[in-house]
């Protein structure tokens, strides 16, 4: 905890900010990429959202109060950026978020960065049919193996509510996968 406080101080101080931010990017770029990718699905869009996330982190680090872990705070920013991206893209195209997700799933089949088989594609389709919160919880728990306590900080909701969302998501996905 003391290390994190010093790291945050380094991020805020003009003399150490650049080096500390470079270290922050190196440490969190990959996990944040996969977190965002699970939400927006497309590689190029993920890169854009990731870049915006780090810009927001850099611009707002002075306001970080340390009430949560830096990791949780950054994941919350990444989650909000990814969801905002989807909403803006859907609005621009005049379609719902769900329709946009459905289109993204269709594009996954031709995405060179998607290394999935038919069952993985079917799983992605099932996930896309879930309500937004259940999608988030399922992806964070199933793909990123994130603990409920971390998710609780990131999504600012109770562990019990997260467990219920995950349970409902799993049931819906199982039903979808049983269909032929």
Q: In percent, how much strand structure appears in the residues? A: under 5%
Number of helices: 9
- Rg over CA atoms, rounded to whole Å, is 17 Å
Q: Judging by the overall fold, what is the CATH architecture of the largest domain?
A: Orthogonal Bundle
Protein name: RNA polymerase sigma factor
Family: Belongs to the sigma-70 factor family. ECF subfamily.
InterPro entries: RNA_pol_sigma-70-like, RNA_pol_sigma-70_dom, RNA_pol_sigma70_r2, RNA_pol_sigma70_r4_t2, RNA_pol_sigma_r2, RNA_pol_sigma_r3/r4-like, WH-like_DNA-bd_sf
Organism: Flavobacterium nakdongensis
Can you walk through the features of this model?
The mean pLDDT is 88. The longest helix has 24 residues, at 17-40. This protein has helices at residues 2-12, 17-40, 43-60, 70-93, 97-108, 118-128, 132-143, 148-155, 159-178. With 180 residues, it is mostly helical. Helix 2 packs antiparallel against helix 3 (43-60), helix 3 packs across helix 4 and helix 4 crosses helix 5 (97-108). The protein has 2 domains: 1-115, RNA polymerase sigma factor, region 2, helix turn helix motif (Rna Polymerase Sigma Factor, Chain: A, Orthogonal Bundle); 116-180, Arc Repressor Mutant, subunit A (Orthogonal Bundle). The radius of gyration is 17 Å and the shape is globular. Helices cover 78% and strands 0% of the residues. The chain contains 9 helices and no strands. This is RNA polymerase sigma factor. Belongs to the sigma-70 factor family. ECF subfamily. InterPro entries: RNA_pol_sigma-70-like, RNA_pol_sigma-70_dom, RNA_pol_sigma70_r2, RNA_pol_sigma70_r4_t2, RNA_pol_sigma_r2, RNA_pol_sigma_r3/r4-like, WH-like_DNA-bd_sf. Residues 121-173 form the RNA polymerase sigma factor 70 region 4 type domain. Residues 24-90 form the RNA polymerase sigma-70 region domain.
């Amino acid at each position: 905890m003391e290390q994190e406080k010093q790291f945050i101080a380094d991020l805020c101080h003009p003399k150490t900010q650049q080096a500390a931010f470079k270290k922050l990017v190196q440490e969190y770029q990959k996990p944040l990429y996969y977190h965002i990718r699970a939400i927006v699905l497309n590689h190029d869009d993920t890169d854009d959202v990731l870049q915006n996330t780090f810009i927001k982190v850099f611009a707002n680090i002075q306001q970080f109060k340390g009430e949560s872990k830096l990791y949780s705070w950054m994941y919350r920013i990444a989650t909000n950026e990814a969801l905002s991206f989807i909403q803006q893209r859907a609005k621009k195209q005049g379609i719902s978020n769900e329709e946009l997700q459905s289109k993204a799933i269709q594009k996954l089949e031709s995405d060179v960065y998607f290394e999935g088989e038919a069952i993985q594609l079917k799983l992605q389709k099932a996930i896309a049919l879930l309500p937004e919160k259940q999608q988030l919880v399922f992806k964070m728990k199933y793909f990123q193996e994130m603990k409920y306590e971390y998710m609780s900080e990131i999504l600012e909701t109770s562990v019990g509510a997260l467990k219920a969302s995950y349970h409902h998501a799993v049931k819906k996905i199982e039903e979808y996968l049983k269909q032929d």
